């Protein structure tokens, strides 16, 4: 049966420098395929853009109503706007290491919810890099329109795969109850209680009920598997779990691991000091912001500035947030919603995110601008060169972004000899408030 051989491809955007560039199959206007008559033919590439029939001015908001195809990083929002695929490709090369290191960090999460929220952030960067933001926002950036871009399924199939791999590695971790806050959507109002038995419209389980997270805890219930989730290929569940953990260590270890291992294998005397007894100092930025009244879409870009050429400044990481952010002002004035907001604001910890700095610091070591990864060298370096900027786009509320706090922390990390074993993080982190105090 054809259905037995049906595949939905995924694109692993989290491979970082081990992977390919932004795939050509998304950016070339024409595709050559074998037609129904068995002959090769050239057709408009269905992964390049989607053609509306035409865009509906009654259903679509401005500016999307006037554009008749999906666009990536368009030249404008006029009817004759064009995609800038070269900008998407360049964007991916800029951000892929940060996405990879973010996903690597997510895989070390102690809870399912922590993994899910970190994965959400880094998949948001893919929306950002393929969509771009105002004034050049394309369909993929705008949550309400992103599913029209044909890369939507291929990008999200990989998010689904990464979640399935985390679940396989951590079978006891699962959805813990939490409040949706202001991230509600068409079906789930803001400030709803989210939990593993919550029906998830519009996904029907049968004619009467919607699937709940518990119904689909294992993706095989839905009749599919990823290369890494074919548990039936292993004699026991334990063997399968070991294999998944090996894949996670191979594909999603922080990029600094590969760099440091290669440098130490080369034994170059100028860089061997970076790994003392197979241990190095890992550096991250932690951001915190109050959860309420955030712009629904924004990114914060972190840079090293004032560098001694050739580039004076380089981006070292982003924090992207992209939610539907329906702001229902009528519902907001309602008593119970206001009460929910108050109790939510009272009970929720700040929204947190981490960005890895270690590979960007290693770049500076190799460029001769920084001596080592030790605090004695890194703290003065970051105090001098690290800055950040919040970008919300033209029609987004600045909201509470002024209250963002940024902190730099270090942790000692050991690299095991066996590349299929995960990095070992010390349980203790050291904060350096002096690095970010001035901003
Ligand atoms: Cu998405």
Automatic annotation (TrEMBL):
Its cofactor is Cu(2+). The keyword Metal-binding applies. Residues 149-160 form the Tyrosinase copper-binding domain. GO terms for molecular function: metal ion binding; tyrosinase activity. Its EC number is 1.14.18.1. It comes from the Eukaryota. Gene3D superfamilies: Di-copper center containing domain from catechol oxidase. One of its GO terms (biological process) is melanin biosynthetic process. PROSITE patterns: TYROSINASE_2. The keyword Transcription regulation does not apply. Keywords: Copper, Melanin biosynthesis, Metal-binding, Monooxygenase, Oxidoreductase. It catalyses: L-tyrosine + O2 = L-dopaquinone + H2O; 2 L-dopa + O2 = 2 L-dopaquinone + 2 H2O. SUPFAM superfamilies: Di-copper centre-containing domain (SSF48056). Belongs to the tyrosinase family. This is tyrosinase.
């Amino acid at each position: 049966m054809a259905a037995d051989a049906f595949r939905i491809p995924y694109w692993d955007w989290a491979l970082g420098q081990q992977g390919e560039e932004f795939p050509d199959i998304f950016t070339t206007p024409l595709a050559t395929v074998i037609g129904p008559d068995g002959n090769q033919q050239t057709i408009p590439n269905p992964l390049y853009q989607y053609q509306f029939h035409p865009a509906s001015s009654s259903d679509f908001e401005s500016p999307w109503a006037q554009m008749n195809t999906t666009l990536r990083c368009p030249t404008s929002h006029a009817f004759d706007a064009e995609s800038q695929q070269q900008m998407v490709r360049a964007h991916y090369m800029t951000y892929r290491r940060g996405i990879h290191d973010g996903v690597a960090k997510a895989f070390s999460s102690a809870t399912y919810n922590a993994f899910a929220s970190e994965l959400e952030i880094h998949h948001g960067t893919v929306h950002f890099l393929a969509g771009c933001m105002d004034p050049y926002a394309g369909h993929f950036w705008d949550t309400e329109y992103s599913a029209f871009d044909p890369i939507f399924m291929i990008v999200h199939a990989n998010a689904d795969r990464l979640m399935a791999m985390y679940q396989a590695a951590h079978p006891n971790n699962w959805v813990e109850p939490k409040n949706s806050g202001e991230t509600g959507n068409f079906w789930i109002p803001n400030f709803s209680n989210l939990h593993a038995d919550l029906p998830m419209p519009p996904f029907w389980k049968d004619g009467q009920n919607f699937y709940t997270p518990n119904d689909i805890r294992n993706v095989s219930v839905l009749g599919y598997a990823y290369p890494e989730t074919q548990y039936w290929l292993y004699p026991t569940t334990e063997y399968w779990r070991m294999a998944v953990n090996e894949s996670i260590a191979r594909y999603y270890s922080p990029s600094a691991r590969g760099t440091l291992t290669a440098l130490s294998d080369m034994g170059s005397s100028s860089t061997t000091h970076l790994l003392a007894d197979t241990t190095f100092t890992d550096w991250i930025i932690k951001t915190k912001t109050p959860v309420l009244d955030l712009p629904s879409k924004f990114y914060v870009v972190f840079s090293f500035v004032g560098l001694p050429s050739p580039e004076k400044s380089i981006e070292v990481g982003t924090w992207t947030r992209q939610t539907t952010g329906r702001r229902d002002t009528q519902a907001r004035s309602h008593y119970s919603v206001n009460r929910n907001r108050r109790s939510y604001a009272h009970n929720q910890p700040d929204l947190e995110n981490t960005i890895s700095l270690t590979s960007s610091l290693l770049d500076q070591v190799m460029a001769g601008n920084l001596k080592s990864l030790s605090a004695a060298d890194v703290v003065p370096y970051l105090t001098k060169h690290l800055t950040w900027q919040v970008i919300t786009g033209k029609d987004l509320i600045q909201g509470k972004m002024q209250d963002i706090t940024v902190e730099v922390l270090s942790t000692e990390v050991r690299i095991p000899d066996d590349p299929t074993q995960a990095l070992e993080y010390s349980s203790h982190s050291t904060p350096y408030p002096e690095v970010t105090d001035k901003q």
